[in-house]
Amino acid sequence: MNEFSELDEMYREVILDHYHSPRNNKSLDNPTKEIESNNPFCGDEIKLQVKIQDGIVTEIGLSGRGCAISQASASLMGEALLKNNINDSLKLYKDFRELLTGNLPEDQMDDLGDLIALEGVKKFPIRVKCALLSWSAFNDLIEV
Q1: Where are the strands (E) in 40-132, listed by range?
Q2: What's the rounded Cα separation, in Å, for the pair 29 and 10?
Q3: Calpha distance 128→131 (Å, rounded)
Q4: pLDDT tens-digit map of 46-86
Q5: Helix axes 125-143, 68-81, angle to 10 degrees
Q6: Cα separation of 3 and 126, whole Å?
Q7: Is the overall model pTM greater than 0.85, yes or no?
Q8: How many domains does one find in the chain?
């Protein structure tokens, strides 16, 4: 197995792990904000709840249904944003979106951590919306 095949396999494992064992898959009592979003083209759905205190995401609750990409992306997002301040979270959203559209500079990829596992989605433009569903919901939730 060459280096790229091993890397692809590791990324697949990260995605499948988050799909089969989603993180922060819960409902929050008294969230600061919540939003529901869906992708009408494929049927993916997400409900996102957050508790924010002093500009920090202190708790995240995610639930929904959909393809492995949308659900794994939501789970990875939950881990990435938890305990993060809102400005850093919005920058992470922007960087992740840029990764999926092929516009993120190489030197910024390390900042994405496990989110880099979803980079291969950019080869399938129709699936980019799946990967961005929860992130767009987060952006909408904060912008409201």
Answers
A1: 44-53, 56-65
A2: 35
A3: 5
A4: 999 999 999 999 999 999 999 999 999 999 999 999 999 99
A5: 40
A6: 27
A7: yes
A8: 1
